[in-house]
Amino acid sequence: MAHVKVTSKDFLDSLNSSTLRLLCLSVVTNFRLAADDYGSFSHLRYRRRMGSGISSTSAPQLSRSDDHSDRQNTGGTMDKDSSKPTLSPAEFHIYNKFAVQMNYFHDQFRRTWDELQKMSKKDQPSQSEARAMIRMGLQFCSELHMHHRFEERHIYPVLSRRMLDFQPHHSLSKQHEKIDAGADQMQRYLEQCASGKQAFSTTEIRKIMGNFGSTLWSHLDDEVKALGAENMSKYWSLDEFRSLNL
């Protein structure tokens, strides 16, 4: 299709609005808020990739353990195969707060990704549709990078003291690397389209999204699961968990 030019004012207005929205969400769902500020969640919604597309399903991935063994928590182990503690509803609610809050942010990315994927299915979008997708895609990449930088500076270093998943070069960090590489490629392409230096193609954007989409969706689930009550209670006593400064 013809070149689509997004003015710098359009892009900056969109980006500033996006950044402000993300910062506001960060304040509202700050990791330092007490768990009682949130409702009791016995499970979280997950959306799984099915076949070549992405569909949404409901699965109780973070429900309380049915294991009735005596609760043991040394607060220092990194052995994930240790017996799962049995948590009371109140304990589960406290331990699960980071997972609930993280899933709230991840839902924003899931919704935007779904919308981008839906828009990209149109082979010959109008110029207004192309401009809208370029702006949305640039917003998505900017917010995703900001989200990851915050996690890597303020959350992962604290949790990695005891939790292998959050250590550098392990599963979640490796997912970050692949996702960031894909988002960088997507951002560069959309910036070229926004400036009019390159023609916008939904075929190209589908290809770029396909390079990291599966990893992104796995990460959105895996990170929330790692922050879930059952997992967190393996590594932190209740008092230690309450004092975590993320």
UniProtKB/TrEMBL annotation:
Record Gene3D superfamilies: nmb1532 protein domain like
Residue spans of biased composition, Polar residues class: 53-63
Pfam (any one): Hemerythrin
Residue ranges of the region described as Disordered: 52-86
Biological source species: Talaromyces stipitatus (strain ATCC 10500 / CBS 375.48 / QM 6759 / NRRL 1006) (Penicillium stipitatum)
Domain Hemerythrin-like, first and last residues per copy: 105-223
Alphabetized InterPro entries for the sequence: Dimeric_xanthone_biosynth, Hemerythrin-like
Protein name: Hemerythrin-like domain-containing protein
